[in-house]
């Protein structure tokens, strides 16, 4: 059944082609063989910082801390 659905969707034509009106300014990921080690390090630092911000969950962390403290105080 699943293969039939995949085949059908592959045969259907899309009504429109989505084009992003906001084109990227730079190619990503860059070719690390062509850039200097200093620039590589900067890009890695930027990526790590952005990934950390993206996956930070302050609400979840606060809730876990409150539950932990509540279980310590009440238990």
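Sequence proposed for the structure above (75 residues):
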């Amino acid at each position: 059944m699943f293969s039939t659905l995949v085949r059908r969707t592959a045969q259907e034509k899309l009504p429109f082609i989505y084009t992003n009106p906001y084109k990227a300014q730079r190619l990503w990921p860059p070719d690390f063989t062509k850039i200097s080690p200093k620039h590589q390090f900067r890009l890695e630092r930027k990526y790590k910082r952005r990934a950390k911000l993206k996956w930070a969950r302050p609400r979840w962390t606060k809730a876990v801390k409150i539950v932990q403290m509540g279980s310590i105080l009440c238990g």
